[in-house]
Design a protein that fits this description.
single chain; disordered C terminus
């Protein structure tokens, strides 16, 4: 979601009125992070995040996120209170419906165009062939050429849109090397740009990609070739990182 959906009735909620100003400010930063990710107000493994990851994700330090009535800890996961679950559900539902509706309309138009054009061309050819049989082959060729141009035009439009989406995908990679090769791999794939961006955001928060100044982050082309977006980012365990436990 690109907007914060905060109900004004929240100002009288006991959880809000009993909280300190610092806790309310921290809650706002957490709210921005959660609504952008549409994660239902749950930050998985947040208690184990180092300071660097907290600042990168929310603008807060680990010291600024402790115990508060505005959020609660379940294991190592942070659950944000007063999160607009109903608004998120409505936004996601409308977006998915819009995508499906737009896709079905486009496919219907393309199918209709491909079906109707040859039919009309055949009718004209049959009418003209009664008077001049020699025009049949010429009309058939013209009809095929028009259909071919229509198909190529559609394919070109799709390719142009994917080219424009590449800039957004490239900006999501934390390590930017060999863009030309990465772009070629991306254009050959059919994965959606949004899925790549979401997956890169998840991987960018893992210990594997954040430690040693990003030394272990794979090159973009290599990550795309192995379909990295299909892999589940590893969770940070207690053996790997001691949890940061702080209070305001």
């Amino acid at each position: 979601m690109n907007w914060l959906n905060i109900n004004t009735a929240q100002s009288s909620d006991p959880l809000w009125t009993s909280s300190t100003t610092l806790a309310k400010g921290a809650w706002s930063c957490l709210m921005i992070y959660c609504t952008h990710r549409e994660n239902n107000g749950i930050i998985i493994g947040a208690r184990l995040w180092p300071d660097r990851q907290w600042i990168h994700a929310t603008g807060l330090t680990a010291d600024e996120v402790g115990d508060s009535s505005l959020w609660r800890w379940i294991g190592d996961d942070l659950h944000l209170e007063l999160y607009p679950h109903d608004i998120q559900k409505m936004v996601v539902s409308k977006r998915d419906s819009g995508k499906l509706g737009g896709q079905s309309k486009s496919e219907a138009k393309i199918t209709a165009a491909r079906t109707n054009k040859p039919r009309k061309a055949d009718q004209k050819i049959q009418a003209q062939s009664k008077h001049n049989p020699s025009t049949i082959q010429r009309k058939e060729m013209e009809g095929k050429e028009k259909e071919s141009k229509h198909t190529l035009s559609y394919q070109s439009a799709v390719a142009d849109e994917r080219e424009r989406d590449w800039e957004k995908v490239w900006s999501a990679f934390p390590k930017k090397i060999d863009e030309k090769k990465a772009r070629a791999v991306y254009l050959e794939s059919d994965v959606s740009p949004q899925r790549l961006i979401d997956s890169l955001a998840d991987w960018s928060q893992t210990d594997e990609w954040t430690r040693d100044n990003g030394r272990w982050i794979p090159a973009p082309a290599r990550w795309l070739e192995r379909a990295g977006w299909t892999e589940q980012p590893p969770q940070i365990t207690r053996k790997e990182k001691e949890p940061v436990r702080c209070t305001l």
